[in-house]
Amino acid sequence: MSFIYYMIQLAIMSIARRIRLLNDEVLTSLAESSWEILDISGSDVTDAGLATVANVCSNLRAVDIR
């Protein structure tokens, strides 16, 4: 995956989270195995969505769910 593509994904996810549109569907459609840190605080992501992403993101080390 190119660096530009990666940055675009992070920007889309950040915007979706800020305007309260980040949910399981959005998160799982953007998830990449290279992710190491994930901030889903204030989102509508459920336990099931987080579990799906955890299976996809094998390098995930930290998740912020505040």
Write structural notes for this entry:
- The chain is mainly alpha-helical and 66 residues long.
- It has one domain (3-64).
- The protein is built from 3 helices and 2 strands.
- The chain has a two-stranded parallel ribbon.
- Helix 2 (24-30) packs parallel to helix 3 (47-56).
- The protein is globular.
- The N and C termini lie far apart (29 Å).
- The relative contact order is 0.21.
Principal-axis shape: globular
What integer value in Å does the Rg equal? 11 Å
Q: Indicate how many domains the architecture comprises.
A: 1
The overall average pLDDT, rounded, is: 90
The secondary-structure element order is HHEHE
Main sheet: strands, sense, barrel:
2 strands, parallel
Quote the beta fraction: 5-15%
Brief synopsis:
The protein has helices spanning 3-18, 24-30, 47-56; strands at residues 37-39, 62-64. By secondary structure, the chain is mainly α.
Task: Describe this protein with a few key phrases.
about 70 residues; mainly alpha; two-stranded parallel sheet; globular
Question: How is the topology of this model organized?
Answer:
Layout: H1 3-18, H2 24-30, E1 37-39, H3 47-56, E2 62-64
Parallel strand pairs: 1-2
Helix pairs in contact: 2-3
